[in-house]
Each structure stands twice: as structure tokens, then as C-alpha cells.
Specification:
Blueprint lengths: L5 E13 L2 H27 L7 H14 L8 H19 L17 E4 L8 E2 L4 E6 L3 E6 L15 E10 L2 E13 L8 E6 L5 E3 L26 H19 L9 H35 L2 E5 L3 H4 L14 H14 L1 H14 L3 E5 L24 E3 L8 E3 H14 L26
Parallel strand pairs: 8-10, 10-11
Antiparallel strand pairs: 1-5, 1-7, 2-6, 3-4, 4-5, 6-7, 8-9, 12-13
Helix pairs in contact: 1-3, 2-3, 4-5, 5-8
Length: 439
């Protein structure tokens, strides 16, 4: 198939589940059991000598734990095996420098999920224009929203099929994320123009040709930062503020050491649902915007940003306290809400899917250098949105993010691009040597 210009592609499709209260409670128990299996594996890994840390010994330990601990038996056996494989893969990612070392999963800070590794166990069938049915282990037949055609029934074969799924819970409830394998033709090289893209706070995506991408309905606060609830309408904002005020009052009247009441938990669930709705709308905007960019431009250039360093606090220490702490905290929130890393990830795989390429250039001084004369003159960046070149021989003025986007494209054209990132969602770090405990 490769000689004919075809290749296998894997992608995910997420749909909302229509669960009954009993079914939702059962999947909650499975997710907690999966987290407990992960924590048991991590404790076993720390206790075992290095020569006994093998996949077979870990599998035997899980089987024994599921026989001795009653609530672990709620988790299907294949889902427990998936946790085992994920845990060992996490250590491999750490040794290769792609991620940090695995750790214990907390009840509140970890995402609730259950893996279904075998796609044939789902037995998917479309029953309506808007609904499909899937078989969930130990739960039964469950409806899910049919928003995209899936390779099931007569459309399924060895090249086009569903290889598995994962159940994931967020503020809107339980969803099923299908892992789909499709045979698609290799895209021809994209002949579109080159474009420099700057991700900012004042302007979400500034393009070097002036065709910027804005949220459209995002109001600005007096300090110029984006509204943290910009993806909610007026009624939803009012409801969110009312719920937050109610939660603060109930939390104030709670005595120290007293358990959280059900009413406060219900209020937190409502807040979480509104936040999840705003996140879904933002992701929808990101998907549509990045798809249009990948279809329009053949070469896209972005900055190689280290976002974790950009959102560090400015509080300082007791001996040397920082300045402008509140302003820096607001900027950090705006940067986190824009999710620049997720935007770059979408551009990366969509550029490869449409035959284009995505490159990264160093981010140093792209916002301070004038794109017209090329000089860095102090005071040119007047505020978050305005750039006025102080060079007496230039005087160019315009949007600061637009100026940075032009500089980004200029760096690429002058040969300062890093390794092309199209086709990879994660840029590998330098490979490390395995720890002595794992050799």
C-alpha cells in the first residue's frame, strides 16, 4: 500500500455518553479502582529489587491484588492490564526523556478514566441519526452521541477499524474516546504560502500577512487582559458568579476539620460543569482555526516557547519580594487559558495531514525587534498591544503581536529554523541514561 501512496493513520474521536445514574456510579467505581491499581503498581515498583521489576512479576502482583481486594474486582481484567502497560510505558517515556517520572495518582488531581483496549468488545452499532450504541464491560449497552461516521459494521476491515476506546470524565460527565485506525492516501506537498504565527494574549493568533485569528466575542478587561469567562454567555456568567459566591459562603461557615457537605459538593459540580463547557468551546475554536490554517498555508512558523517558565509567579521570596505580583498573576492566567501548547500541537499534526510543514524558531527578541528596520530600540513596546519603533530613521507602528509574527517569519527565511516539527506532537528532549535501578 505504501507504494501506491497510502498510509495508516490513527486518530481519536470523542463522544458524550448517555448514562443512567446507576451506570455512571459503576464507571466511577471502575475509575477509582483503576487509579488504585496504578498506585499499587507504583508502590510495588518502589519496594521490589531492580532485577524483579519485570512485566510478568507485575502482572502476577495485579492478579493477586484483584483476588484479595474486593473493590479492585470491579475493574475489568483487560482494563487492569491496560493500566499495567501504561505504567511501564510511562517509565520508558521517562528514560527516553519524553516525560517526567511516574508518581502516585491523587484522588482529586488525577483525571478519572477507564481503558477498553479491545475494539471488538465495544460492538458498536448505529441506531439513530444522532445516537449510537456501544457495549461497555460490566456496564452493558450504553448510548453515545453520533457526531462522526465511524468504521463499524460493513465499513470495518483490517485497515479501517476501531482499535479501542477510553472512558474519560470531565465536568460535563462521562465521554468515550474512540481510537480509530484509517487507511488514507498520503497528502501531496502543500503549495500554499509561508506564514509566521505569533500566539499572544491581546491577539490569540497573529499572522504575518495580517489575517489574524481572534475569538470574536472575547471582551477585554480594563488592564487589557482577556476575560477569564469569555467563552460563556451573559446568563452563564451570572450563574457562575452566583455559584462561586454561594460556594465561598458555604465554605466560610464550615468548621475546621468538618467534612464537606453534599450541598457544597453539588455547587462545586455545577461550577466544574460551566468551566468544562467553556473549555469545550475554546477547543472547538482551536480545532476550526488550526484546520483552516493548515488548509491555507504550506509552511507555518511558530516560536519555540517554554510556557512553564513564562507562567512562573513574580512573588519572589520573603527577603526579596517581587513587584507587580497581581499583574503578573493575571497575565499568567491569560496565558494558561489561551493554551498555546495545545494550539501548536494541533498545528503540528494537521500540517502533516494536509501536506504542509511546521517549523519553530528561537523566541528571543521577536517581540522587541522592529520588523521594518530590524533594530531593537528600548521603549518601542509601549504596552501589550502597541509597538512603535523608536528608531529615528524608522518610526513603524502597529500591533505588537503582528510585529512579532513578521519577525518570526523573517527568522525562518534567514535560516534560523529549528528541526521541522510536522508529524510529531511532542518534540523529544535529549535522551538520558537509564537510572541504575532500572538497568
Amino acid at each position: 500500500m505504501g507504494e501506491l501512496g497510502w498510509e495508516k493513520r490513527q486518530f481519536g474521536h470523542r463522544a458524550r455518553l448517555a448514562l443512567s445514574p446507576a451506570g455512571s456510579l459503576l464507571i466511577d467505581e471502575q475509575a477509582h479502582a483503576a487509579r488504585a491499581v496504578w498506585n499499587c503498581l507504583h508502590a510495588w515498583w518502589q519496594m521490589m529489587p531492580k532485577e524483579k521489576r519485570t512485566l510478568a512479576n507485575a502482572d502476577a502482583a495485579i492478579r493477586q491484588a484483584r483476588r484479595e481486594v474486593d473493590f479492585l474486582a470491579v475493574l475489568p481484567a483487560q482494563a487492569a492490564q491496560a493500566v499495567l502497560k501504561t505504567y511501564f510505558q510511562a517509565w520508558k517515556n521517562f528514560w527516553d526523556g519524553r516525560a517526567s517520572a511516574p508518581n502516585f495518582k491523587g484522588r482529586l488531581r488525577s483525571v478519572m478514566s477507564v481503558d477498553i483496549p479491545q475494539g471488538r468488545d465495544l460492538q458498536i452499532k448505529r441506531v439513530h441519526r444522532r445516537w449510537g450504541m456501544a457495549n461497555l464491560p460490566k456496564v452493558g449497552r450504553v448510548r453515545f452521541s453520533w457526531t462522526k461516521d465511524l468504521p463499524v459494521g460493513k465499513l470495518a476491515n483490517m485497515e479501517n477499524r476501531i482499535t479501542g476506546a477510553r472512558l474519560v470524565k470531565d465536568g460535563l460527565g462521562w465521554h468515550i474516546a474512540f481510537r480509530v485506525q484509517m487507511l488514507e492516501s498520503k497528502p501531496e506537498p502543500h503549495t500554499g504560502p509561508e506564514i509566521g504565527i505569533d500566539a499572544g494574549v491581546n491577539l490569540p493568533l497573529a499572522l504575518s500577512d495580517g489575517n489574524h485569528r481572534d475569538h470574536g466575542r472575547a471582551p477585554r478587561l480594563p488592564d487589557g487582559s482577556a476575560d477569564r469567562d469569555k467563552w460563556l454567555n451573559t446568563m452563564e456568567k451570572s450563574k457562575l458568579w452566583r455559584l462561586e459566591r454561594r460556594a465561598a459562603q458555604r465554605k466560610t461557615h464550615r468548621k475546621p476539620g468538618e467534612r464537606t457537605s453534599r450541598r457544597l459538593h453539588h455547587t462545586y459540580d455545577q461550577i466544574r460543569g460551566l468551566r468544562a463547557k467553556a473549555t469545550r468551546r475554546h477547543q472547538d475554536w482551536q480545532h476550526k482555526t488550526t484546520t483552516r490554517l493548515a488548509q491555507t498555508y504550506g509552511v507555518m512558523v511558530v516560536e519555540a516557547l517554554t510556557i512553564t517558565n513564562m507562567v512562573k509567579s513574580a512573588r519572589g521570596t520573603i527577603a526579596e519580594p517581587g513587584t507587580g505580583v497581581a499583574q503578573k498573576a493575571g497575565l499568567n492566567r491569560s496565558i494558561s487559558q489561551e493554551a498555546w501548547g495545545r494550539t501548536v500541537t494541533m498545528l503540528t499534526y494537521k500540517a502533516g495531514r494536509h501536506g504542509g510543514t511546521l517549523h519553530k524558531v528561537p523566541a528571543a527578541n521577536t517581540s522587541r525587534r522592529c520588523s521594518a528596520c530590524g533594530f531593537i530600540t528600548p521603549g518601542s513596546r509601549q504596552d501589550q498591544a502597541t509597538f512603535v519603533c523608536k528608531n529615528p530613521n524608522c518610526g513603524w507602528s502597529g500591533n505588537a503581536d503582528h510585529n512579532a509574527a513578521r519577525n518570526i517569519l523573517h527568522l525562518y527565511r534567514t535560516g534560523h529554523a529549528l528541526i521541522p516539527a510536522a508529524g510529531r506532537a511532542v518534540v523529544r528532549r535529549a535522551k538520558r541514561v537509564k537510572p541504575a535501578t532500572a538497568r
